[in-house]
Amino acid sequence: MQVLIDRHGYVIVVYSAAAPAAVVRRLHTVRSILESDRVALFRSDLPPLGLAALVRQLRQLSVCDLSPGVVASAARLLTHYIYAGALLNSVAKLDRVPVSLKSHAKSWVPGSQFGVVANPAPQLVKIGPDAALTGPEFSTWLLVAQGQLQSDWVKETLAHSWQVQGLREATLPAESARWWGTSKLIEFATYLPDISVLYQLVTSVRRDHCHWCGLERIGDRCVFCSATPPVHENQTPAGGVLTQETLAP
What we know:
alpha+beta
């Protein structure tokens, strides 16, 4: 980590919310030992393939004329534009997306398959002639990682209904089977591939300087120091709130 800081100046660590507690403790321990304010730890709820797509986008932005604080903050913004899900043979062990008792019971029927979206909003349907998942309303590419499930539904039916502009295949992340609760799956994620679109999206958002560490940021929280904007004492109180002056004779 020290070598990375010396070589690049700043390090942004993106890790899954499903990462073991020991891994998270190790990350915080390393940052504490280094006593460095140049290491940002970003925790993401995205599934493994969606997380990989997000990291790819951050790497693209890192070569642009954006400050480290803005690149780190962009992770939250770009997460909303990634549709991440999977085709599963069972949802019996799926605990990342709400599963109804009816869907849970159907998962025990041999040959059943389920289409699931975990981000940006949870969706779950049993695959059939009329099965459909709500996708992005903007132009994207589809990233597909094949697990131990054989099906053309993602590459053909889903890709067509979501009107993706292109499709790329990837190796299934090692954490996918544990995240989705089964190894019989096909994981997918849509993403914005064009760096010019990513750059325009990020630079269109208002930037501020963190009052604590001084780095530029977008949004209401600095990823490097976790500070939020201070509430000033002379701020006008909200309507309907009584103050001492109001009560004074």
